[in-house]
Design goal:
By secondary structure, the protein is α/β, with parallel strands linked by helices. The protein contains 20 helices and eleven strands. The strands form two sheets. A nine-stranded mixed sheet has the order 5-4-6-7-1-8-9-10-11, with helices on both faces.
Length: 504
């Protein structure tokens, strides 16, 4: 039988003793964990668990037979079933018998059986892991020796073995260098190999657009999110307001649907405002204050219409794990045909660290967590041929260097090795402004730079590894303006071009 009545009872007893455990991520229970076809007791256990959960969510601090009785009287069908099992005597008894020290064992056993039932119902042969026809004690010993991950990996290995036989070799190609180059040359003439458009024409020239996995690294408050909003709009909206022409124009860099994954809880209410500010060219401060000048309100209303008709999808996931991040990205690429993923941003938070530590069996340093996340994003980009633009944090070393390098990233150099393009953005200090004074004197009416982009890596770049692009970023609208570019030693970079990537 793929159900342990004793472990289910003891787990419920532990929840009765310590009700708040039902809200813990450590002891999450699915809808099928206490439901086993052909096991009548399981339905009783399921009802009790759901009752305890609902009571705790409603504020109950203690669980006893009286409060359970009061709750169940509102649900006649469930109440009658529970009376058949004499729940009024059952609850105090399991509270007495349950041992909190054994809750992990009871919990994992309940979940192991639930997982096996799911695999069996899906058509998998589970007898190598648990043979119901054999003596129960020996099978339980075998099950006890396995973790939930062991069970999952067993079936994953079975699936991969089949995949290797039929699919794996399809990606291996053997050819002679130079074969088909004539075709490749003509293809490039017809469609130059460019990625999706940054809002910065200079960055388009440096990196040939957004391709593969692109890292934009910066400190807190450096403008990573603001710039990412602009880049999402460059690919995801059909029109935007041109401040020079003073009218809405067609965005020729539009490519289709875009996924923006937000990991900052505080940004949820601001994101739409940031998108509309960029599209309209109206400061988000004006939008949030509800105070408009001239035609600004009309422009905002038009921007709202454009955004509503766009394919920019936003997912708020501040408590993301590596697995659900992968699932979200894959779902939107497959189901919504997104052409660009913007992930804000790669960070080491508790859920990810715990998940990866559980997977590996060892505690993971911050750099290992960040590297693993970056690698998974890279694999997704390669698998689906969809660019992924993500932000990363700096480790503070950037202030101790004349020119920031990959060593300044919180995840270290290894992150950059995974990326196709990598840059570091920094505000300009007073010292920086003094160093570039000769450039400032010839800007004319243009604003002074307030951000410098340090190019760290560009797989397809025609430029040296380290160059600087000076920009003015309007923090109210999120729009950036390229001003000038230099080499590492501040010599002028005169051959950089304002490359506009058009798709229609």
């Amino acid at each position: 039988m793929l159900y342990s009545i004793d472990d289910a009872m003891m787990l419920i007893g532990c929840f009765c003793q310590r009700p708040n455990l039902v809200l813990s991520n450590k002891y999450k229970i699915g809808n099928l964990d206490f439901k086993a076809k052909g096991v009548d007791d399981s339905e009783f256990h399921h009802i009790l668990y759901r009752t305890i959960y609902n009571l705790v969510v409603s504020g109950a601090g203690e669980i006893d037979e009286v409060i359970v009785d009061t709750f169940l009287r509102n649900y006649p069908k469930q109440y009658e079933l529970c009376k058949q099992y004499d729940f009024m005597a059952f609850i105090p008894e399991i509270k007495r018998l349950a041992s909190g020290e054994n809750i992990d064992y009871h919990y994992t056993t309940v979940r192991k059986f639930a997982m096996l039932r799911q695999y069996k119902s899906a058509g998998f042969n589970i007898t190598e892991l648990y043979d119901e026809s054999k003596e129960e004690t020996s099978q339980r010993n075998k099950l006890d020796a396995m973790t939930l991950r062991d069970i999952d990996e067993y079936f994953e290995h079975k699936r991969l073995a089949i995949k290797r036989d039929f699919i794996s070799t399809e990606n291996i190609e053997h050819y002679k260098a130079g074969d088909d180059f004539e075709y490749t040359k003509e293809t490039f003439k017809e469609t130059p190999r460019l990625g999706l458009s940054f809002q910065s024409p200079y960055l388009n020239d440096v990196y040939r657009g957004i391709m593969g996995l692109t890292l934009r690294s910066g400190g807190s408050g450096s403008g990573k999110t603001t710039l990412s909003i602009g880049d999402a709009c460059m690919s995801g909206v059909k029109y935007y307001y041109d401040l020079e022409q003073k009218k809405y124009i067609t965005n020729h860099s539009y490519i289709g649907n875009v996924l923006f994954i937000n990991t900052e809880m505080d940004l949820r209410e601001e994101l739409d405002v940031m998108f509309i500010a960029w599209i309209s060219g109206v400061s988000r401060q004006h939008i949030m204050d509800g105070v408009y000048h001239g035609d600004e309100e009309e422009r905002v209303d038009k921007a709202y219409q454009i955004l509503s008709e766009s394919g920019i999808y936003v997912v708020d996931d501040p408590e993301f794990t590596a697995k659900n991040l992968e699932e979200i990205i894959e779902d939107y690429i497959v189901d919504k045909s997104v052409k660009l993923v913007v992930f804000d941003y790669v960070q080491n938070q508790g859920y990810v660290a715990n998940e990866l530590a559980e997977e590996s069996g060892i505690p993971m340093r911050e750099d290992m967590v960040l590297l693993t996340l970056t690698d998974r994003l890279k694999q997704l980009s390669r698998k689906y041929n969809v660019p992924i633009l993500t932000g990363t944090q700096l480790n503070g070393q950037e202030f101790n260097m004349p020119y920031p390098t990959e060593a300044c990233l919180a995840g270290g150099k290894s992150q950059v090795r995974k990326a196709d393009c990598s840059m570091i953005i920094m505000p300009l200090s007073q010292k920086n402004m003094e160093e570039i004074e000769p450039y400032l004197n010839v800007l004319g009416d243009k604003p002074k730079p307030n951000l410098v982009v340090h190019s760290i890596k560009g797989r397809a770049s025609r430029f040296p590894k380290y160059i600087k692009i000076y920009q003015h970023v309007d923090l109210g609208t999120g729009r950036s303006m390229d001003l000038f570019a230099t080499y590492k030693d501040l010599d002028p970079l005169n051959d950089i071009e304002s490359l506009h990537i058009h798709h229609f």
